[in-house]
Amino acid sequence: MAIGIDVPTPPEPDNPEDYDYEKCPFYGQLSVRGQTREGTVVSTDMAKTVIVEREYDVFVPKYDRYMKRRSRIPAHVPGVLDSLEVGDEVKIAETRPLSKTKSHVVVEILSGDQ
């Protein structure tokens, strides 16, 4: 519980001199605050960034039914959690803005798609 939420701490980085401590919630100074969300990784095309998609249901009163919606959230991947692939279930936490679109960071890999 080193970062303020109950997630396991990953092992130390392999190359400490080359590691980006500025954007790491585990071994750097990046604080997490706000909401934590769970979703599925749908894209790993960018460097140090994944797109996490989550589906949820929204009630539509006019038709008295539920409708599926989805949101896609760009999230930063710290170097210690670098082994993400498409289909992995992850937990992301809100943080300060890291770039123009990124305000979340991956804090836990819940399950892989093996």
UniProtKB/TrEMBL annotation:
The keyword Ribosomal protein applies. One of its GO terms (cellular component) is cytosolic small ribosomal subunit. Gene3D superfamilies: 2.40.50.1000. Belongs to the universal ribosomal protein uS17 family. One of the primary rRNA binding proteins, it binds specifically to the 5'-end of 16S ribosomal RNA. Part of the 30S ribosomal subunit. This is Small ribosomal subunit protein uS17.
